[in-house]
TrEMBL record:
Record protein name field: glutamate formimidoyltransferase
Transferase recorded as keyword: yes
Main enzyme class: transferase
Source organism: Sporomusa malonica
Subcellular location: Cytoplasm
Length: 297
């Protein structure tokens, strides 16, 4: 079996389809890479792209997409609900088959150095690729977001791992790393009070004493006049989706609001959905091999 890596770059553009198409076209051009999903959100003003391929091909596709984003996205004009530090905000590599996390870390370092040298964009490394404990978690790296990092990047403790200690004038900075599979999961509430969403997010996020592997925050979805709990599940096997969902529902009840829906951004492992179905259907003795499509592949 050939080595396969997944790459999930996030771009700070979710409103202009022509820009999104130009960026994803750079991925499609690379032989040995398959584009799996493109998910854009206008309120977050963000697009999550998922592709899979051989390591060097995936690295090339990520670089080309990053270069195109730097050309077309001006962070001085960017506004959106989601935290971000640059036109290409984050590029994680995830091992899929016949490849180790250590190899993905090496890939992240190679890409980070190339982005810094060829595009003059400062690059920070995170998760398994982080060079210091303070940069393992993405929220810590993005502290202050684009506007705050512009001022802080000159401080020694905020110097990038690669590239100049100053932001690119329009593309900002980029975070590159290697990690396990992450599920981006949003839960929408029947209220326009974003403070309720923030309180609920604090009740489930790991750093506030909530669920391990759960990172969350409350945001406002302007075009729907709706508050949202936006969540990153960094290990769905350690904390399953249904447990977080039920807790959000329970917390929402405390504030007199309800959950009106939820959404998964990008790709999701089948096992995460099987685990959820098993919980809600109270299945006994269910096995993944009972899924029809698993037997047809």
């Amino acid at each position: 079996m050939s080595k396969l890596v997944e790459c999930v770059p996030n771009f700070s553009e979710g409103c202009r389809p022509e820009v999104i198409a130009a960026i994803t076209e750079e991925v499609k051009k690379v032989a040995g890479v398959s584009l799996l999903n493109v998910n854009s959100d206008a309120s977050h003003n963000r697009t999550v792209v998922t592709f899979i391929g051989e390591p060097q091909a995936a690295k090339l596709a990520a670089f080309n997409a990053c270069a195109k984003a730097a050309e077309l996205i001006d962070m001085e004009q960017h506004q959106g609900e989601h935290p971000r530090v640059g036109a290409t905000d984050v590029i994680p590599f995830i091992p899929v088959s016949d490849i180790t996390m250590e190899e993905c870390v090496q890939l992240a370092n190679e890409l980070g150095q190339e982005i810094a040298e060829k595009l003059n964009i400062p690059v920070y490394l995170y998760e398994a690729a982080a060079k210091t404990p303070a940069r393992v978690k993405l929220p810590d790296v993005r502290k202050g977001e684009y506007e705050g990092l512009k001022k802080a990047i000159s401080s020694p403790e905020r110097h990038p791992d690669y590239g100049p200690a100053q932001m690119h004038p329009t593309a900002g900075a980029t975070v590159v790393g290697a990690r396990q599979f992450l599920i981006a999961y949003n839960i929408n509430l029947s209220t326009s009070d974003v403070n309720i969403a923030k309180k609920i997010a604090n009740s489930i996020r790991e750093v506030k004493g909530g669920y391990k592997y759960c990172r969350a925050m409350g945001v406002m979805i302007e075009d729907r006049n709706m508050a949202q709990v936006t969540i990153n599940m960094v290990d769905y096997t350690g904390t399953p989706l249904h447990r977080v969902f039920e807790t959000v529902k329970s917390e929402a009840d405390r504030y007199g609001v309800s959950v009106i829906g939820s959404e998964i951004v990008g790709m999701v492992p089948l096992q995460a959905l099987v685990d959820t179905a098993e919980f809600y259907l109270r299945l006994e003795g269910f096995e993944r091999k009972q899924v029809l499509e698993e037997n047809l592949r």
